Amino acid sequence: MTMRSSSSGSGDRCPTTARVATGARPHRTTAVSPAASASRLTGVPPGSAGTLRTRRLPPVCCNGLMQFNTYTVAGAHIAVWLVNHPEPDQAALAAQLRSHDVHEPQVTVDDALALNPWAARLREVFESQTVAEKAELTDALLLAADCRPRLVSHGPGSPFHFHYAPVETGLAARVRALTAAGVAHVIDAGGGSRLRACDRAGCGVAFLDTSRNGRRHFCGVRCANQVNVANHRLRQRPVGAGTAG
Predict the structure, then answer these.
(1) HSE-up of 215 (CA within 13 Å, CB side)?
(2) CA angle 208-2-96, nearest 5°?
(3) Which residues form the Zinc finger CGNR domain (predicted)?
(4) In this structure, are residues 73 and 182 in contact, taking their beta carbons and an 8 Å threshold?
(5) How many other C-beta atoms can be found within 10 angstroms of the C-beta atom of residue 39?
(6) Cβ count near 182 (within 10 Å)
(7) What total of structural domains would you count in the chain?
(8) Is residue 242 in a domain?
(9) Which residues make Cβ contacts (< 8 Å) with residue 65, sequence separation at least 6?
(10) In terms of residue numbers, what domain contains 184?
């Protein structure tokens, strides 16, 4: 069975770009039959004759937004949050980690302080202009975090999932490894150009662009409107206005 994103059943659809930009928890997934999945991948209706040829597609959600919602990229959402909260208090950081099911998210003062310089290094990835630069910086983060993927289960009946650093290394080390791996997974999935910082001068809010066309340049509507209004006023100014006579 393959997996496809769906609404939660409570009327909430897929997460908006604003929620993703702040690291909001992704919605759940539901199973899809193999025939329906094959039809979605190939464009061939179920039951049609012909050879089934699958191809890798970017993850598209039910409302057309890109989805980066698996546990493997939870670190990317946490990375966004850290960049936008470079000096978090213990409670806020613990709540963010808990929302992404990070194991044992008990945050100490030392943990929060240790992640401050890491947030600055993550920001460099989001502010880089090319995917090649983002990949190079992220590769350095993977090495610096000593990222070592392992399949871990937290008890009988619990599903296996990736841990990128042993629990005994401490929370700050685990967060460094998880965020580096999460950003790397986004780049590996072809979404490197979607790791961005807001284009409005003086803003700099980081976000993970989940729009359909991947051309979002602002963290939200307010910044987009401010830039658009300023550009419109500039275009309306008479030629030579404001210059010395």
Answers:
(1) 1
(2) 35
(3) 194-236
(4) yes
(5) 17
(6) 25
(7) 1
(8) no
(9) 14, 15, 16, 17, 210, 211, 212
(10) 13-39+58-236
Strand duo 150-152 + 161-163: pairing: antiparallel
In a domain, 44, yes or no: no
Classify 197 in phi/psi space as left (phi over 0), alpha (psi -120 to 50) or beta.
beta
pTM: 0.67
For the stretch 148-183, pLDDT in tens is 888 888 889 888 888 888 878 899 999 999 999 999
**CA 85/CA 75 separation, integer angstroms:** 15
5, part of any domain:
no
User: Domain of 139: which CATH number?
Assistant: 1.10.3300.10
Residue 45 lies in a domain: no
Burial (CB count <10 Å: 0-12, 13-18, 19+), residue 185: buried
Distances (CA, A) of 48 to 10, 51, 56: 35, 9, 21
